[in-house]
Amino acid sequence: MKKYDSIHANHRVQRDYPAKVKFCPLCGAAMESRLLMPENAQRKVCTRCGFVLFPGPKLVAGCFVIDNGRVLLIRRGIAPAVGKWTFPGGYVDFGENAADAALRETHEEVGMRVALGPLLGVFNDSAITVVVYLATPGKEPPSLSVEATEVHYFAPEDVPWHDLAFPTTTDALTAGSRSSGRIARVVDYETQTQKSTRNPTIPLAPALAWAKIMLSFIFCSDWGK
Fold first, then answer.
1. What is the pTM of this model?
2. How many Å apart are CA 132 and CA 120, to the nearest integer?
3. What distance in Å separates the CA atoms of residue 57 and residue 218, rounded to the nearest whole number?
4. What's the Cα-to-Cα distance from 41 to each of 10, 25, 200, rounded to whole Å?
């Protein structure tokens, strides 16, 4: 590979950090596992300079872009979950706050400068934490990119529930029905998974609840003006 060739991140490799770090990021010497006090936990420590590697959480931020009661989803063009649907979003850079990262990632993936609204929720998938904000579109229509091979606004009844990229995508889509006191119905996923796979049930109840809540944010609050 030439010195200045561009590359794409291999997310399978990225997930090996920090567990498989072998060398100190400061001096390059070997790292070894040591018992760190007073927290009484095993940490990677440099054998030369004594640098301790404190692994931080992997934080992702994204936007639920709502237009006329429909949510913008993208079909992923890169691993993981290639070809699956999710909302625009990505990793928060070092020194960046989650709100700025959500705006940046949305612009990078679909070319839109959206107006950020209130926090929809914080969702967890293994070691990854996902922060999702409600947003309204700007003047630009959504466009394609390497990361988004297809973009589409989905009405609640059209959401591809069985083709979503991550558990956090499903969690975020159903968050409205769980958090609103006006809509008490919550989907029993265990019951649904026991039903015939030949005729899978799409969770329309939370989707419709979510749509009502999103519309209430748009038309009954000041953030979308």
1. 0.71
2. 6
3. 32
4. 29, 20, 45
DSSP string, 34-96: EEETTTTEEEEEETTT--EE-PPPEEEEEEEEEETTEEEEEEE-SSSSTT-EE-SEEEPPTT-
Indicate the length of the chain as a whole number.
225
Amino acid letter, 70: R
- Give first-to-last CA distance, the chain, whole Å: 49
Helix H or strand E segment including 215? helix 204-220
Bridge-partner residues for 65, per DSSP? 135
Structure tokens at 223: 């953030």
Count of helices and strands (H, E) across the chain: 6, 10
With contact defined as beta carbons under 8 Å apart, do 217 and 224 qualify? yes
Tens-digit pLDDT profile for the chain (225 aa)?
Answer: 566 788 888 877 887 888 899 999 999 999 999 999 988 999 999 999 999 998 887 899 999 999 998 999 999 999 899 999 999 999 999 899 999 999 999 999 999 999 999 999 999 988 789 999 999 999 999 999 999 999 999 988 899 999 999 999 999 998 844 433 332 232 333 334 434 444 444 455 544 555 555 555 544 333 333
Which residue do the tokens 């889509």 mark? 173
Q: Exposed, middle or buried by CB within 10 Å (0-12, 13-18, 19+), for 125?
A: middle
Q: What's the one-letter identity of residue 203?
A: P
Element (H, E) at 213: helix 204-220
| C-alpha closest to that of 135 among 75, 216, 217 | 217
